[in-house]
Amino acid sequence: MRSVPARARVYILCVALTGAACAVPAFGAPVPGLPALGARTPWPAVALLAVLYAGCEQITRCRFVGRRAPRGLGTFFPVLLAGVFLLPPSAAALVAVPGALLARVERHPRWVRRLWRAAQLAVAAWVAARVFGALGGPGACAAPDFPYVLGPAGAAVLAFSAVLAALDGGVAVTAERVPVRLAWRGLFPRALAPVAVHGLAGLMMAVLWTSPYGPAAGLLVLLPMGVSCWVFAQYHRERAAHQATIRALVQAVDLKDKYTRGHSERVGRASVLIARELGMGDERVEVLRFAGILHDVGKLGVPTRLLRKDGPLTPEERRVIELHPEYGHEMVRGIGFLGDARAAILHHHERIDGSGYPYGLAGAQIPESARVVAVADAFDAMTSTRSYRRARPVPVALEELARCAGAQFDPAMVGALARALERYGWHPEVTSDVPAPGGAVPSAPVLPAPAVPGSVSG
């Protein structure tokens, strides 16, 4: 618990107490303001759903499915939402508790994380069940009355997702110290996506459960949902393997070129800002993130003595370093999931006026991904503090990019970065604080194209 900030501990405790207050009426002890809607707790149904949920929690985290299942997959929402549609609010709040407390947790402190997840799901289920009941959902579900029941069910799903997002934002503020203005950004859509899909399965399960065929019919819904979760997990395991491959390559570059440590990740982040500002789709944005992160992977083929040289490069040495885009392209050519990122790795030092390298492409001949990464690369190079020079302020760096737009950079990419930074800001970090041997201050390895006035290079 000592690793958890004090305000986060208070916040988690408050949510846990709220979850407990939501569940107390199920035991026949109404709490003022939290009635059990006059319904007796159907303990057999609560127990069966709780056991099902706990079992599904373990299955989604087993090695066969994928031990590190992505968030939203590890929580088996169909069972929880079936409880929302079938049970009184206080009883619905109990369904998630055993499974959440017994769930596998990879990171410390494990019991704090288990308690948090149990409390969060309990509160979300209680609120969703209240909304469902207030809109007449239980009667429509038992009838069943289609399509009327879809309205209360949809409202319950929205309420469930909203509570998850709201509570997660609170954790981001108190435990992770995320600024309040950013803590809740994008949380609700991310929470809604899996809950909405699983909500339909939960509703089907509740309708079949209340049919003449009883709970056994409702359990049949779990079979196709289990198969779909397994397929989804395989997809995310493959993505995790991709991320591990990229991490290994970037770490190797950082170890070799210590003066640009962390540069690759920031170029990936700036590339994403540009891509999103230009309205690119998620898949394209992901490709550009990969391109930014791996743009300098070819430095693994450059002699370390040149990357760490404490002085100007000779023309011959510069020509060797200028081979790094081609080295990088060769290294990643067989990695299929990178897609157009490979072209960005090869061409990110090309220039709009045709004076860049390795092939002297000009204008639209340069792949779009490479034009994005070129701007992101130069921007981070200027705004990062390294051991051999101080960072330039962001406005100064943007002015320099604008001055070189049309000659070195694509003006559309420069404008997109400026608009994105105005909206989201930028927080450069020190990329290296390791002094050179003997305390000397090394000069920057220079990687410009043939000398052109106003050249900016990363």
TrEMBL record:
Signal peptide: 1-28
Region (Disordered): 435-458
Keyword DNA damage among UniProt keywords: no
SMART domains, A to Z: HDc (SM00471)
Domain HD-GYP: 238-433
Low complexity biased stretches: 435-444
Family annotation (Pfam families): HD_5
Residues annotated as domain HD: 260-382
Alphabetized InterPro entries for the sequence: Cyclic_di-GMP/3'3'-cGAMP_PDE, HD/PDEase_dom, HD_domain, HD_GYP_dom, HDIG_dom
Highest taxon of the lineage: Bacteria
Segments crossing the lipid bilayer: 76-103, 115-135, 155-175, 187-209, 215-233
The entry's keywords: Membrane, Signal, Transmembrane, Transmembrane helix
PANTHER family, per the entry: CYCLIC DI-GMP PHOSPHODIESTERASE TM_0186-RELATED, LIPOPROTEIN
NCBIfam families membership: HDIG
Protein name: HD-GYP domain-containing protein
Source organism of the structure: Streptomyces kanamyceticus
